[in-house]
Amino acid sequence: MRVRNLAIAASVAALAAAGLTLPLAGTASAASTLKDDYNGDGYRDLAIGTPGANSVTVTFGSASGVSEGRSVTVTQDTAGVPGVTEAEDEFGENVTSGDVNDDGYADLIVGAPGEKVTGKPSGSVTVIKGGKTGFTGGSHVVNAPADTAGRFGEATTWNDLDTDGAPQLAVISGDNWWYYSGAGEDGRAFGLEVDFLPEGVRLDGMVSGNFKYKDGFGYVLYGERADGGAYTAHMNGGAGDYGYQAELLGEGDDPTATREAATAGDVDGDGYDDLITGNSRGSKGGSVTVRLGGDRAFGAPVTYDQDSAGVPGAGEAG
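Below the sequence we write its predicted structure tokens.
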């Protein structure tokens, strides 16, 4: 359930070890509208979570790209960030961004599914405010709803899921999906109106996109069934019926299912987001599956591995 974190930990180890904990200011005088521009300088920034180290490293973009010299590492011990770093927190297990307070700067949204809070199920999500002087604008925590089994914060998204013009926070726990109404992430938490998830499922990730409707978001939830088989499903819906239009995409030993990694992007340029999933156990040495989005339906899954024509390398066990 944590395969993807091994590569992340390796790639960010040098940055985290550098101990660069002072935020860097942007150079622009006005805030940016870019989704991942935390310091408002007009360039997107790269945020990588390292849950094994309970940290998130942000490398700031520039005209020449990103560099180690323009980075900051944020933990629960950073000034202004709530909580205290504890070994089991997994702070950084999930990282996303969005302009939560509508000030023109992206804010860092960090999941910590192992966080323990007295009287509540495990897990929390911390919103760390961006600004022209970096992460100095304050932060706050969203704790797990009472009616979940825990591991709240396994994955988060920030989208206008009900198409009312204002984005909302969506979060998965180990056994449920939630979204927050009202004023961004400070509103009331709502779970699935129609619970389509199989008994004993352990959700580990989520990705959202305009997969089937150009004017609305769908959500792909993935993880493991109770028997250890992969589980991948998609749902559409709106306020009042989330979970009603659920579709199982793959499960068990199906190589097109995933328990590990998914992302979305318009691969073929038709205006619909396409779903890309990874399966390290698929084929001989792992595989990637693409499902093209379209009007109310995904296209048939197409799977690639290192033995596919045009893909460099060769499939090797492990």
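The helical segments are 3-17.
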